[in-house]
Structure formats: C-alpha cells, structure tokens
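Data card: per-record layout.
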Amino acid sequence: MSSRMVGWAMNAAHLDASIPAHRVVNRIGLLTGKIHFATPTLMEELLTSEGLEVKNDRVQNFEKYHWDPMLELDLQK
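The structure for this 77-residue chain is written out next.
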C-alpha cells in the first residue's frame, strides 16, 4: 500500500526538476521508475553522478543507501 502512495506522490515530480525523483527505487534497489524519465538511461545517469553504482538497472550496495523511515525517524515505538 505505501508503495502506491509514493507512486501517486511522485507522479507529478517530472513537473518540478528540484524534486530528486531519480532517488526513488523499489525495495531492492531496482530502477523501476526509469520509464518516467526523458530517456531510458537518465535515472541511472543521475544516480551515477551522485556516486552510486548501478548495474543491470539495480543500485549496487543498496543496503548502504537504503533509507528506512522506521529506523531513521524512530517510528518503531
């Protein structure tokens, strides 16, 4: 359910270049949203420009970059 909410929230992100929509990948690091970018490789190019390694449309060492709001915002209470 929450992935759908993110999808709806990001749906209009292409209208505002200041939103880092290229950072939104699926739960295992796959670039599933790349079809929404101007070119098939733009999402990967943007991630690579930020120092991430991408192979076969998947962020490498994803666990290092993954943001878990439950942990980061201490929502486990």
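Known properties of this structure: The chain has a mean pLDDT of 86. The helical segments are 2-10, 42-49, 62-65, 69-72.

See the next section for split statistics.
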